[in-house]
Amino acid sequence: MGSEQVSVAPRPRYQLLDILRGLAILAMIAFHIAWDLFYFGYSNVDVTSELGWVIFQKAILTSFLLLVGAGLMLAHGSGIRWTRFWRRFAFLVLAALLVTAGTYIQFPDFFVFFGVLHAIALFSLIGLAFLRLPPWLTAAAGVVVIAANFAYSNPLFSSRELGWIGFWPSSPPTSDVVPIFPWLGVVLLGIAGMKLVLASPLAGGLAAFSSNEPAARGLAFVGRWSLLIYLLHQPLLIGGFDLLQMVQPPAVMPAVESVSDGFVRTCRQSCEATGATAEYCTRYCACALEQVDKADMWDTVSASDPTAEQLAGLNSVARLCTAMVQNPPAP
To answer: Which of 82, 211, 222, 317 has the most CB atoms in a 10 Å sphere around its CB?
Structure first.
């Protein structure tokens, strides 16, 4: 009995980390609600291009990956528990494949080939190699990974085949990507930070922290089930907005302001000429503007005699934006 107590004690459930995960998942849900409000026509704030919202989204991703590193250190820092690790790894891979399959069905030209779940699975596997290293060395490796992405870029990495690595000057064709460079570096910083905490007097406080306050307990509960919530919340939100549209259709949205007013005006005219509603065309053309700018396709748009490859690119944008306006995916 005594040996069982010793084996369990070093690996308590850290409520504080569960609370932080809960805060991160709630922030992500808030971001996705704002995303859905725009694409369903209830808001004219495009969270994928508004600077404040972009910073908010990056901060959420950073917090998640820091917690991935910290959790990896807590779970396996004193010895890798392979059965537990492979069980979680298999679940992450399965969930990531479901995301890939679902987005491929919706828009095959812009499916998620290396999103958040793909990244967490791979980064967790790579992170095992850093658990026994000195924290300064792990932190240095993390800084190098992050800095390398800002010091070097090459258009070759903008392809789907290499886009999961990073180093691209413009995003590869996908609706969501979390590449190794720079984001693996954030996980490594999480590992190093937790290793320093465990070697300091803070370790006892972290393990002993416990709150019975309803808010803390609620956040901890959300944090414990963060992966399941990540998988389920967006389909539920989309279903909710589908029902809302039946009861309260969205108002017509104003045109999106940009330096490319001519492109937007021409797009809207062409769209409305097909018989589509003004509300639909406004959101469709906002999406098209974003994708053209994101992929730097302005030469294609202005070409008087576009090549077959350029036409294929424009057709891919058209299919993606049609899918996003009708049934938007999670960012």
So the answer is: 317
